[in-house]
Amino acid sequence: MFDRRCLTALGGVLLALAAGPALAQTADEVEVGEVVITAARSEAPRATLPATVTVIGSQDLTTQQALGASAVETVANLVPSFSPTRQKLSGFGESLRGRSPLYLVDGVPQSTPLRDDSRDGFTIDPFFIDRVEVVFGSSAIQGIGATGGVVNYVTAATPKLEEGWAGKAMAQTTFDDGMVGDSLGWKTAGLVGRDMGAWDFVVGAAYERRGAFYDADERRIGVDGTQGDLQDSASWSLFLKAGWDLSETRRLELMANHFELEGDGDYVAVAGNRATGLPTTSVRGVIEGVPPTNEVTSAALSYRDGDLLGGTFRAQVYAHDYEGVFGGGTFASFQDPAIAPIGQLFDQSANNSEKQGFKIDYERTIEAVPGLRALIGLDGLRDKTFQAVIHTNRLWVPETTYKSLAPFLQLRQSLLDERLHLSAGVRYENATLEVGDYRTLWGQGNQQVAGGEPSFEEVLVNFGATYEALDGLIAYASYNEGFTMPDVGRVLRAVNTPGADIDTYLDVTPVISDNVELGLEYGRGPLRASAAWFRSTSDRGALLIRNADGNFDVQRQRTEIEGIELTGRWEANDWLTLGGSYAHLEGRTDGDGDGRVERDLAGVNIAPDRLLLYVEATRGDFSGRLQHQTFFERDFEGEPAANSFEGYAIADAVLTWRAEPATFTLGVQNLFDEDYVTYFSDTQSPTDNLSYYFGRGRTVTLGVSKTF
């Protein structure tokens, strides 16, 4: 909870800043309405978009990276209704507004909805990200997967200089403040580019090695040997963006990104004891099998013509190749007496996804109707996914191919001297799911399943309005439909009905979510504020339920989620800024199938309520940020009492010194060394002592960077 220590610290920082050279970072300053949100597929100002939007700019990204934060941790720290992270490689259970977000890198989908292993937050190094666009709520404008919203990582652009090279470089070291030893980690990265007139490019590389994590009592935190862990791991990444200006209005651009993260496998977990409050810890040891890894390659070729028949034409073709290896064990699902005695067969799985797709759209004003602007487009996607059991060469999830073609139309009408903007759109999703005949693993029931090619046709609509009632004050209302697949891999591998036929198996039908939203935004002078209410429903949601083997199965139940989000930011003067945000979420589901929701969504499906407060300041060459997050306690009606969330509060601080010839940073996570159980661990499986994880204690990150 928010305690007196944080109030004292906030007050102390303010007094220190008032007295002389101080802490701070001024966040990116933008007027409401002037930012163009590329994740919305339209080159229109923010003021015309009837949805809650957060843009995390380069300065805010730099501040969070000074804490050693990953890309997904940065989003979680700054977006009020995003779940607290698990501090693991897997983001399983992390959600936006209680549903899954769609992750993009420059518009290229990173998520793996057919077998959602929740590692889509770790596909690019944050050093290569220039800004993050977060569009809240269900949306179909980017296709499959965005039932909770869209998180678009926009990568670094080529420095625009008349001649010569430009770029940036950085080095960091991170360690636990009381146990430096094996907690020591480090990172180095560089990015360089050149503008040669018609041609330009930027290229970069990053490498990071992470040490062991410790909690506030200096206990080594337990490694997640199955889902994968960030601690005791190494990652490297390569990035390239090159462009060719064909004319003043036409540009061809190539983006490529490769990211690999692999565990070192130097530690094994030691079970804790939930009854006594003893957390899962780690000791040095050698794991069996291959360490958990992520390997991702994304590439996109984009073309833009800003003056084609009076409008803007955009086209993109992309490819995405992903493999995620999970830790092994003698899990019941993997057993087969034809291979080894029951209980003795060790194996591990790897999730594979290959995507190819294209996006084409054209946008222009319609002269016959003053103020009318139309966007028309066509998207295509082919996603082939399977999950293999790698040591015995078996398929846990059969090869599954999702193919879709989706034409769409968006209209926006400006009225009342462009103070009122009405929008409406329709998207026709025509998809086919191809699955061959297969047999489930012996440990999953050994059922023969007839494959098939079920097809889905969905007409998804949206409409909304924004109105600038006063200068800087915008009110908006909207209705949006989003869709995704219900983790088909979990469904297929768990089929236990003899003679099942995929063509008629209802559990593989899409999840359609309806999102209604009302909001206000104000941005004028020193004050920025917003308030939003939303309600999201799905008649056949994809609920995650833990089974006896420790894995999660998908159950199709009606879900209803409702919430409010509040944000505020006040630039008190030219050196001091105060701000904060608050999110309250409620989620219910229909557990007995009677059409009425009667129990709460569990912690794996919804985030806790959260309050974020922060202060930023700058004096001369010094700047800094102090942020404090409170995650409020929560009970879950219909869940075991032991799954209640106790709540916790943590503070982080960043100090920056812009010296010559470099910039130096000091970041401290969990400033007050709070001892806490992570949200996911606290709200799941009260009898699982091997997954009783505490959060990281006070952690220090020292960094140096140079821009040239």
Automatic annotation (TrEMBL):
Coiled-coil annotated spans: none
Span of domain TonB-dependent receptor plug: 48-150
Gene3D superfamilies to which the protein is assigned, alphabetical: TonB-dependent receptor, beta-barrel domain, TonB-dependent receptor, plug domain
Subcellular location: Cell outer membrane
CDD domains: ligand_gated_channel (cd01347)
Domain of life: Bacteria
All copies of domain TonB-dependent receptor-like beta-barrel, residue ranges: 298-671
Kinase is among the record's keywords: no
Topology relative to the membrane: Multi-pass membrane protein
Keywords noted in UniProt: Cell outer membrane, Membrane, Receptor, Signal, TonB box, Transmembrane, Transmembrane beta strand, Transport
PROSITE patterns (UniProt xref): TONB_DEPENDENT_REC_3
One protein family per Pfam: TonB_dep_Rec_b-barrel
Signal sequence segment: 1-24
Family to which the UniProt record says this protein belongs: Belongs to the TonB-dependent receptor family.
Protein name, as recorded: TonB-dependent receptor
Protein species of origin: Phenylobacterium terrae
